[in-house]
Amino acid sequence: MITASPTARLSPAAADWRELWRDAITNAAELLQAAGLGHRADLLPVDDAGFALRVPRGFVARMRQGDPADPLLLQVLPRAAEHDQVEGFTTDAVGDLPAKAGQGVLHKYSGRALLVASGSCAINCRYCFRRHFPYGDEIAAAGQWRKALDHVRQDPTITELILSGGDPLSLATAKLEELTQGLQEIPHVVRLRIHTRLPVVLPERVDRALMDWMAQLPLQKVVVLHANHANEFDASVDEACARLREAGATLLNQAVLLRGVNDNADALAALSERMFAAGVLPYYLHQLDRVRGAAHFEVDDSRALALVEELRQRLPGYLVPKLVREVAGEASKTPL
Ligand SMILES: *Cc1c(COP(=O)(O)O)cnc(C)c1O
Ligand code: SF4
Q: InterPro entries in the record, alphabetically (predicted)?
């Protein structure tokens, strides 16, 4: 049997990712229309609670038509509950957001330095801490990288650089090249890790130029995707994952446990199975960061633990994610 290689599947006529990025839906009425819910005026949000609606059309196409409880729709449609003031839910839930937005590099965990490479995202996820930090593209510009790289260069204990954000793959590939050129000259850095949701929400981002950049990097490469539900995967995401693997990346996924989206064992098991079919292993299942406006997504700890216990009984060990939460000041993610 002849099977097309992932490269062969990269059609030269594929739409440019930047155009698709700009073409995202930013209007609630249009989103509801596209999701087959145009008749449901009751679902129209009064406002966006200060965090703009934004979702690429390809992601919308994976929503179930006519289902107001669709797990993809719920991640992006503003809801009145975002105005709820709930105790413990703040605008700086992770505790280091000023640092993230300011100096660009975070070195909290041993061996790993995290660079906030870009504040931009192709999609606005309603549960994200980023909703309170509209940091722009300037993070990666203006010599920030040089300072970050200086920090990494001066500390031989750092063996892994993590590009995070926002979404680091929102940067032009030429920018990424510029960054990693400096990185390659630092002998103690052996691994580059990229935390990104783009291969899932805008798989066209994994284009030839990105693959070429990755493939030639003399570093171990890890890409940590972010998908919360099996339905976020389709053939285009499978292909993006195949291209990333072809470029030498190990693929992992982190999900956030979200009420109404994936807070049942069937959904979580299906997510693990579906991502594995795309060559992706589960890494973390995060308890929600307690950000203001996201309280309606929270799942309590006892239920979270019960869900993971059920997964452990149903799935091979390698398909069970680690349930963690981010606690400000801790030296690692905190297991539940
Ligand atoms: C989450 C995080 C990391 C990565 O942690 P891992 O457990 O290695 O995935 C590194 N640095 C910071 C500041 C983080 O928040
Ligand atoms: S940082 Fe991640 S979770 Fe937050 S809006 Fe961007 S893609 Fe969504």
A: Aldolase_TIM (IPR013785), EpmB (IPR022462), Lys_aminomutase/Glu_NH3_mut (IPR003739), rSAM (IPR007197), rSAM_sf (IPR058240)
Q: Residues 73, 136: one domain? A: no
For residue 96, how far is its CA from the centre of ligand 1 (angstroms)?
A: 12
Q: How confident is the model at residue 317 (pLDDT cuts 50, 70, 90)?
A: very high
**For ligand 2, atom 4: residue with the closest CA:** 128
pLDDT(141) > 90: no
Q: What value does the mean pLDDT take over residues 16-32?
A: 97
pLDDT of 233 above 90: yes
Structure tokens belonging to residue 245: 């693997």
Residues 74 and 148 in one domain: no
- 45 and 170 together in one domain: no
Looking at the structure of the chain, the number of domains it has is 2
- The closest-lying atom of ligand 1 relative to the alpha carbon of residue 284 is 9
Establish whether residue 110 lines the binding site of ligand 1, counting it when its CB lies within 6 angstroms of any ligand atom: no
Same domain, yes or no: 286 and 198: yes
| 303 CB within 6 A, ligand 1 | no
Structural domain ending residue among the three candidates 83, 118, 140: 83
Whether residue 2 lies inside any domain: the answer is no
Query: Distance from the CA of 166 to the center of ligand 2, in angstroms?
Result: 6
**DSSP per-residue letters across 71-98:** TTHHHHS--GGGG---TT-BS-SSS-HH
H-run or E-run covering 224: strand 220-226
Question: Which of 121, 131, 232 to mutate for ligand 2's pocket (most ligand atoms within 8 Å of CB)?
Answer: 121
pLDDT digits (tens, 9 = 90+) for 48-97: 999 999 999 999 999 999 999 999 999 999 999 999 999 999 987 776 65
The Å distance, Cα 130 to ligand 2 centre, comes to: 7
Distance from C-alpha of 161 to C-alpha of 190, rounded to nearest angstrom? 8
Judgement on whether residues 121 and 262 belong to the same structural domain of the protein: yes
Q: How far is CA 199 from CA 100, 177, 297, in A?
A: 23, 18, 24
Hey, is 324 helix, strand or coil?
A: strand
- Could you list the residue range(s) of the whole structural domain that residue 75 is in? 11-83
Q: Of the ligands numbered here, which is closest to the C-alpha atom of 133? A: 2
